[in-house]
Amino acid sequence: MTHDLTCAACRELLPWHIAGTLSPEERAAVERHLATCAECRREAALWESIGATLADKESHIPPDTGAGDAWLALRDRLPRQSAVIASENRKARLVDFDADAPRTTSRQGAAPTATRPQRQQRQPQAPLRRPALAIPAAVLIIALLAALFGFFGAKLRHSGAPATSPTSTPTPTACAPGALSATLPADTIIQDISMTSPRSGWAVGWTEVGGPQSANAPRTLLMRFQHCQWQPVAGSIPSARLMSVSMTSATDGWAVGASVVDDNPSPAPGSTHEWASKTLFALHYADGQWDRVSIPAAPTGFGAKLRMTSSGDGWMLIDNGKSHTTPYISKYAYTLLHYQSGAWTPVPLTFDASGSYIFWDIAAMTPDDCWIIGYGVVAHYHQGVWTKWSDPQFGVTYAGLYSITMTGPNDVWVSGTYSYRDANGDETGPLVVHYDGAKWTRENMGSAPGQLNGIMSTTIAAQSPNDVWMFANAFAFGGGGPAYVAHERNGAWTWAQAPANLASIGTVVFVSSTEGFATGLISAPTGEASVLLHYSNGVWSAIPTT
Amino acid sequence: MHVLDERLLVAQVASGDEEALRQLYLAYRPRLRRYLWHQLGGDTASVEEALQDVFLAVWRTAGGYRAEARVSTWLYQIAHYTALSARRRLARHAENLQLVAFADDDMEPGGTNVAYDVAYDACDDVVLNRLALDDALDRLSPKHREALALVFQHGFSLDEAAQILDVPAGTVKSRLSYARKALLRELGAAPTEKEARHDA
Predict the structure, then answer these.
(1) How far apart are CA B122 and CA A281, in angstroms?
(2) What is the spatial distance between Cα B126 and Cα B139, in angstroms, rounded to a whole number?
(3) Which residue among B49, B91, B123 sits closest to A45, beta carbon to beta carbon?
(4) For the range B39-45, what are the long-range contacts, defined as Cβ-Cβ under 8 Å and sequence gap of 24 or more?
(5) Which of A226, A465, B5, B31 is the most buried (most CB within 10 A)?
């Protein structure tokens, strides 16, 4: 082949030429071009320097002396084949949902009984269009926010809560807008919120004096909302965090937390303390106080999410923190506990035969029935039977699902991100899918403002079946990015930038069709700080802190 | 290890052969350890944990290995995702700033994907300043470091690198291009400076 390379073509090949991995023909073509092109020779010299410097760096890696021990440690962790086979046998109860096939009935043939709310016809997803002019601005925003290098903290796992409807007692009127306030201790992380009425509720999290890497262990934080004020309650648990709260009424509820241990108590220079969640515990609210309850069924937990449906039924999805660093997560890395007849017992996650997922959120409204979502999966459990849906049903090739909300068994909303490729490479865009009791539909999200590529997570919550909010926490790796708000009303989505300085939003709860609360993080000069948000009259705003 | 032997090993792993996994582990540990080292900021504990996770994934998913890809490509793919998840976990802690990607670099305003249009006539000075280059490489974002590592230090072709990173080949090229530009920028090699130097 005597076809001569252009400079552009030669330069594209240079990295591999220097690395020595070109085919003989390509190599010859490059060398022919270099022989006559001084500029490309300079280019090659640059790559040579880069390659040589990279090679130098390799020599600075300490020699590997731990291979033998490391193998033994790995061998001890290998799941045994017998366990895999046993769970395969339970596959017999798996129902794989096929949109075209008649739905396989559950054991009791208990089809959802709620009537289907009237909905407008969903349009098929149109390709997202990104306004070209918005791109530079969005890059600037992201760069500026990244420069704050606040850290996302445990918020990375945050997702939404199902809408809570008011209790059957007469709904108290909302607080006057100016009357709301919150007293937030310093260095507070608010993780979850659960309201029992427009005038009462609880939020949980922890305080970490000096930040998460300080020598001070975190302490639990319980915040109570009454008299239009958010106030911390006395009595925090040392060396512990609270991760999730779910109230069933003003007089009953649950919270879940974990005790923490410093995995790095004597940090070498350059490393920090590592307060790692170890043993899970639950708090049960009854008779006006919170009592600690141990959870024998799942002693260890990295994170947990609670959803109660009543004082006698609820769910806890626990991340065991094991084998948790690849997308190939074994179903053994999560534990699902069901609260029934006064006890928390495990429900095996048998809806997947071979693969594995990262789960992000759980929703439940009726007894013995829950929904779990995560990367590429939505699974619905109903009285012993699992139904599973995955990417093809959502119309995308890779659905990163973060948040689920429902107003009923036939009105389920899931939000997250989806991956796609365009001329600029790989992107992530906002994804919302809706389940009407029979099939999944992908929402047409319309034109998002700016560049919504690179969404880290989303939160979705429904005010009512025809009024849904989705918050997208945009990308700034390691720090909070700008948050965007999408609002669906009667079939159409509109976008707006979230309240000023809102870096990300965690849990969103609606107390009525016109009022709601949320947890979030705002960008502050010192990094990111927790904030409680209030929604009313179409506007989200931060609750002033005292 | 002979290519055919590797595939056989993977097949044996899929049938539950621990010894086969051990051979695969010992054969690939050195490379993957180096690869993960830079991905995880030289944190020994994280690297060891990530290595375990890679091979646990190999153990679980060996049955799904498609022989069209080289075993090395498949293993590095797993390592890539492992490192990505580990970095996300580590990035919750502000100390690990060196792992923070500063911006969505591929989206430079007005830039094309593969734009070797930045002249750097001061290249001679740049090339000689290896210490500065070493420093500048440290400041590259993880995904650009990774692209460079796969090409220069682990010997993967364009298509293989694309498979490992799960991006189109064009994205691999643009990441290399961006890395090159970022390095030049760090080293202060701009055309205008060259002019100034001439005048001096």
Answers:
(1) 63
(2) 16
(3) B123
(4) B39/B83, B39/B86, B39/B87, B39/B142, B39/B145, B39/B146, B39/B149, B40/B83, B40/B86, B40/B87, B40/B90, B40/B99, B41/B90, B41/B96, B41/B98, B41/B99, B42/A61, B43/B90, B44/A62
(5) A465
Q: From the list A11, A16, A211, which residue is nearest B116 (CB)?
A: A11
Q: What's the pTM?
A: 0.53
Given CB atoms, is B134 within the 8 Å cutoff of chain A? yes
Closest C-alpha among A282, A275, A200 to residue A233: A200
For B51-64, b/e burial (b = at least 16 CB within 10 A) is bbbbbbbbbbbbee
CB A499 within 8 A of CB A533: yes
Question: Alpha-carbon distance A457 to A119, whole Å?
Answer: 27
pLDDT tens column, A411-448? 899 998 877 776 666 666 788 999 988 889 998 887 76
**In what side-by-side order are the strands of the sheet with A229-232?**
A181-182, A229-232, A219-226, A200-207, A188-197
Whether the CB-CB separation of B36 and B82 falls below 8 Å is answered with yes
- Quick check: B124 contacting A, CB < 8 Å? yes
Chain A interface includes B73 (CB < 8 A)? no
Predicted ipTM of the assembly:
0.78
Instruction: Count Cβ atoms below 10 Å from residue B109 Cβ, excluding itself.
Output: 10
Of A133, A425, A448, whose CA–CA distance to B109 is shortest? A133
Residues ≥6 apart with Cβ < 8 Å to A382: A106, A110, A368, A369
Using a CB cutoff of 8 Å and minimum separation of 24, what contacts does A513-516 make?
A513/A463, A513/A464, A513/A467, A514/A174, A514/A463, A515/A174, A515/A198, A516/A461, A516/A463, A516/A469
Q: How close A196 comes to chain B (CA, Å)?
A: 32
Q: How far is CA B28 from the centre of its chain?
A: 16
Which of these, A484, A510, A504, A503, lies nearest to A495 by C-alpha position? A484
Could you give the count of Cα atoms lying within 13 Å of A263 in the half-sphere of its Cβ? 12
Residue for token digits 């500063």?
Answer: B102
Asked if A269 has any chain B CB less than 8 Å from its own CB, the reply is: no
Q: How far from the centroid of its chain's Cα atoms is residue A464's Cα? A: 23
DSSP A62-90: PP---HHHHHHHHHHHPPPHHHHHHHHHG
Element (H, E) at B158: helix B158-165
The Cα A61–Cα B195 span in angstroms is 40
Residues B39 and B42: their CA atoms lie apart, in Å, by 8
Strand pairing report for A181-182 and A229-232: parallel
Contact A282, A304 (CB under 8 A): no
| Preferred mutation among A75, A477, A526 to probe B, highest tally of B CBs within 10 A | A477
Q: What is the maximum span of chain B, computed from C-alpha positions, in angstroms? A: 71
Tell me which residues of chain A, numbers 227 to 266, contact chain B at a CB-CB cutoff of 8 Å.
none
Q: Which one, of B56, B104, B175, B23, lies nearest residue A428 by Cα? A: B104
Each residue's pLDDT tens digit, B126-150: 555 677 788 888 888 888 889 999 9
Helix/strand/coil for A134: helix
pLDDT of residue A425: 61
